[in-house]
Every structure is written in C-alpha cells, then in structure tokens.
Amino acid sequence: MTNSSATSSGSRNAAPKRRRRRSNPAGQSGEARTTAPAVRVNVTEWQQSRREQAAAAMSDWSPESFVVEPAEGKVRFHDFDLPAPLMRAISEQGFNYCTPIQAGSLLYTLHGVDLIGKAQTGTGKTAAFLIAILTYLLEEEVPEGQKIGAPRALILAPTRELVLQICKDAETLMQYTPFKLLSVVGGMDYVKQRDQLRSEPIDLLVATPGRLLDFHSKRDVDLREVEVLVLDEADRMLDMGFIPDVKRIIRATPPKEKRQTMLFSATFTQDIMNLAAQWTIHPQRVEIATKVQTADNIEQHAFLVSDNEKLKLLIRIIEHWKLTKVMVFSNRRDSTRNVCEALKKAGINVAMLSGEVEQKKRIATLESFREGKIEVLVATDVAGRGIHIDDVSHVINFNLPEDPEDYVHRIGRTGRAGALGTSISFIGEEDAFALPGIEALTKSKLPCVYPPDELLQDDA
C-alpha cells in the first residue's frame, strides 16, 4: 500500500498506468454462482437514442468555452484531460479547481489504480469517485452484448440518505452522457426497483448492502460484470454491522485483479485497513486532514458533573428547558443503550441510533426524528455522522469523544442552515483527559462551569 499526498499537482501521466479494460469477468468470481444468466441485449439498439440525445446536448458547447486560469497551489479539472461531457457538467456547477481529495485521488483513479481515501463529508469525495467512474465509462467500450440488470459500476453506501445524495450528485455530473443510473435501497418501492432492474442495462448502480443482496439472491441483479467498485463511508458500514453483507456482495463481483476498487472512510482504523487489504490490490492511500471549523452561531457550554449525576442532569436539561429536537452523543453502544433506556423511563420521547440498530429501523427512526415525532435522538459517533437535519436545537455530549475531530462533527449537527444552535458537554473525571485535545484542535477554550443548581435539585 502506498501513501500519497493529496496536494500533488494534477497530471494524467504522473501516476502509474494499469490496464483499464478488464477481460470478460463473468464466472470468474470466488463465489459459487447462484445468478441465472442475464438477458443480453443489442447495445446498439438500446443505447443509440441515448447517445444521440447526449450528442445533441453537447452540440452547442465547446471545451474552449470553459476557461480556468492556472493558480499556484491549486489543481484544475482541466489538468486531468477529462471527457467533454463531464467537463461541461463540471463547468455548469461552477467547479473550477479540485478539492484536495479530488486532486489527490483522481491522480490515480483515472488510471485504474485502486484507492483508499480518508475524507470527511463535505470534502468533495463523492464527486471524486463519480468523476473517476464516469471518465472510465466514457472512455471504455461498452461490453459486447451488455446484460440487463448487470451494472458496470457499483457504489455501496450504508444508508438510504447517502445513496440518494450520491445519485443526486451523479445525475448532475452525467447529464450529458448516455448512461443509465439506478439506485436500490430499503424503505422504498421494492417492485418499482425490481422492474427497473429487469427493464434495461445499467451503467451505474448505487445501493445499500441489504437491498442489493435481496435483489441478488432473487437473481434480479448480476454483479459479475462490475468493472469499478466504490465503498463509501466504510467505517459506518463497519459500525452498523454491514460488513458480512458487503463481503457477500464483493464475492459476487469479479476478483480484485479484474476490477478497480475505491474505498473511502472518515477514519483509518485497523479493521478498515484489514478490509482494504482484502478488497484492493496495490492501492494508493490518500488522506485529507480535517478542516476544523466550529460555527460562530453555535453556543458551546461545558458542565462539570460527576459520572453518577450525568443521567439526572440530562433529564433535567431536557425537561426544564423543554427541548424538543435534541441529539445526545455517547461514546459506546452500551452507554448509548443505557442513556436511551433511562430517558424512556423518565417519560421522554427518545430513540437510539447505533450499530446494533437494524437498517430498516434506523431509517424509520431518522424520519420520525426529522418529522418531530421523536424529540431526543441518542447516537454513537459513527451512526450519527452524516445526519443532516436542519432544525436540531441542541447537541449534548454525554461523554466527550476520544477523538477531538468527533467533537467538531457532533456539534455540527446543530446550528445548520444559519440557525442558532447550542452544544452542551458533560465533563466528568474521564472526560477531563479529552478536553485539552479538543481545545487544541478548535484553537479555543471551552469554559467549564458547574450546572445551575436548579438542574441538579429534585422537584419539591
């Protein structure tokens, strides 16, 4: 595995080139085949109208109309010699220069090299792997007799929300291409998704693991033709218990020597690196330092409190201040479960998000919280990452996180879309050890005070 700086200058010729076009991989996967031979269609007939529409849409645009001057320390999309349909979509989005994860990863992924990328949400990583996929699809010939229900590129993501966001970004970038995009996720119309899989060939499939396995077991999707595989937010899939499903999916794809694999994660734990070693071949490793930013519109408070008084204080804050849209973060699953049970006993409308919560229930919980049917959401860091709900008024840290970056991500769940937000951290004996790291990362002091007396006093 090779480390790479994300600030390298962009040049398509700077990275080692690997054979881009794989030989027909059907039947070469390590998993015994349960998938019936898919129906092959005449690609010329199927794609002709799409190609004509894409060509017509590009007829009034020239790459020369998209001018971006070179700038010191920045990498332009022009530096990667991307196909014109992709450049037009990029230009219309106002993207002139690559983000660090885009510059660092495209240097390799455009040449078919496997990648392990460390990047948080909001860094442009979705566009980074979509640009690599779409460039590959545009530059490589469509397989002879493309199959119905057999995607050429597959993106796996842990949640429905993330899948739908990826699809939204993909639709923007591929609007001038002839490609077919499809998403399959739980919690949405099963029959409609099945019928779409059965209707025509798919170029790009974006899916959650559970629903994809369901369709695969029923022979509605054939993964033997996958040429590019992306695993997004692999750490969340690990925390949410999806890795056994992901392993089954990957075994149904061609061997790693016959496909390109990209894995993205917000953290590089040993578990993640072990999985990457199983699923990739000679990967480049690109890491993006987290940009620390605590919004000015978030009031940050820290209460000194003993561990045995934390639950009492939490309940009193929610009840006394009449809070109705609160996220509570705890470091471990068992602690998350205990906090949730204590709040329920106190009569508070609460639900839990952690790796032990099954996907269907997780989706329902998020929707209920978004709609105000649940007032308090207790979550672990990984399960809570990527939740974008605009009107969360308070974030409460039942424990300070061990990783200072997680503190920034936690409090960022409030104060969204310019609204005012409040974060409250409980500082017990163990939490005090985490405080200096948080203050060093955020470059600010977090004043610690004792909570107001009325929050710890019993009702008369």
Automatic annotation (TrEMBL):
Motif Q motif: where in chain: 75-103
Polar residues: bias regions: 1-10
GO cellular component entries: cytosol
Domain spans labelled Helicase C-terminal: 313-457
Keyword Glycoprotein: no
Helicase ATP-binding domain segment(s): 106-286
BP term (GO), one: RNA catabolic process
Pfam family, one: Helicase_C
Subcellular location: Cytoplasm
Highest taxon listed in the record's lineage: Bacteria
Domain annotation DEAD-box RNA helicase Q: ranges: 75-103
GO molecular function, one term: RNA helicase activity
Reaction(s) catalysed (UniProt annotation): ATP + H2O = ADP + phosphate + H(+)
Keywords: ATP-binding, Cytoplasm, Helicase, Hydrolase, Nucleotide-binding, RNA-binding
Stretch list, region Disordered: 1-40
InterPro entries in the cross-refs: DEAD/DEAH_box_helicase_dom, DEAD/DEAH_RhlB, DEAD_box_RNA_helicase, Helicase_ATP-bd, Helicase_C-like, P-loop_NTPase, RNA-helicase_DEAD-box_CS, RNA_helicase_ATP-dep_RhlB
EC number: 3.6.4.13
Oligomer status and interactors: Component of the RNA degradosome, which is a multiprotein complex involved in RNA processing and mRNA degradation.
Protein name as catalogued: ATP-dependent RNA helicase RhlB
